[in-house]
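In this section we walk through a basic example: taking a raw amino acid sequence and producing a predicted 3D structure, encoded as C-alpha cells. The instruction is simple. Fold the sequence below.
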Amino acid sequence: MQPNASSAVLETYENAPRKYWAKIIAFVIVFSLAAWSFDAINFGGINNVGFSVVRNILRYFVNPNYKMKFDPEAINYIQKYFFSWERYAVPYLMVETIMIAILGTFLGAIISIPFAFLSSKNITGEKGSWFGATLITMIRTVPIFVWGIVFIRVQGGAMAGVLAISVSSIGMISKLYIEVIEDIDTGILEALDSTGATTFQKIRFGIIPQLTASFLSTAIYRFEINVKNAAILGMVGAGGIGFTLIDALGSFNFPIVAVCLWGIIPVVLAIEYLSTWLRSKLAQSERS
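The resulting C-alpha cell sequence is shown next.
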C-alpha cells in the first residue's frame, strides 16, 4: 500500500466515532440477561439418577453389547432392532423417517411458491405483500412440535408428521423464496416486455431461470433440517424412529436407545454432507 493510502486509512480510523459507552452498555445488558437466565434455571433437579441415565446411554452407545456378560438377551435385542426389516426395526423406521421428511419438504416447497410470489413487494407491491408476509410470519411462530400435536388429532401416524413438516416448512422456505424473488434482475423482464412477450413467456424465460437454482437449494437445505424434525416428531406419535426412541427412554431400555442413536446419527450426517454438496453444485451452476 502506498504511503498516501496508508495515511488516509489511518486518518479515517482515527476520525471514526468512538462508541465505547454503547459497547459497554450492550455488554452489560447481554451479561445481565444471561445471569438472569441462569437464575431462572433450577439446577437442583439434577441428581445422581439423571447422571446414571446419561452414563448408561453413553455406555451402550459406545458399546451396544456392553451388558452381554450380565444379560445374554442383549445381543438378541440389538439384532432384532438393527439387523431386521420389520416395522419396529431401526432400518424400516429410518426409511420411514426420511420418507416423511421428503414428502413434507416437497409439499412445503410447492405450497411456498405462491405464498412467496404474493408476499414479494416487487410482484404485488408494498400493500399487496403485507397480507402474505403476515400470514407467513404467523406460520413461523408456531413450533413444529405444536403442529405435530395438532395433526395427530386430525390424522395420526406418519401422515401427521408429513403435514406438520410441510406446514412448518412454509414459513422458512417462503421467507427465503421472497428474498430471491425480490432480488431478480428486472432488466431481463423489461427486455422481454419490449419484444412483446406475454406474461407467461416473461415468467417462463425471465423469472423461472433466475429462481430455479435458488429454490432448489432452499428446498434441499430445508430437507436437511426436516430429517431431524421428522425424528423428533416421532416422539409425539407422528411416525418415524422418534416414537421407538422415546418409548425406549421411558422404559430405560438403553440397548434400544443406543441402537436408535446409531441409526439416526450416521443417516443425518450423510444427508448433511449430501445436502452441502448438492447446494454447492447448484451455486456453481447459477454462477456459470
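Looking at the output, two observations stand out. The radius of gyration is 26 Å. Residues 66-70 have pLDDT under 50 and may be disordered. In the next section we compare this with other chains.
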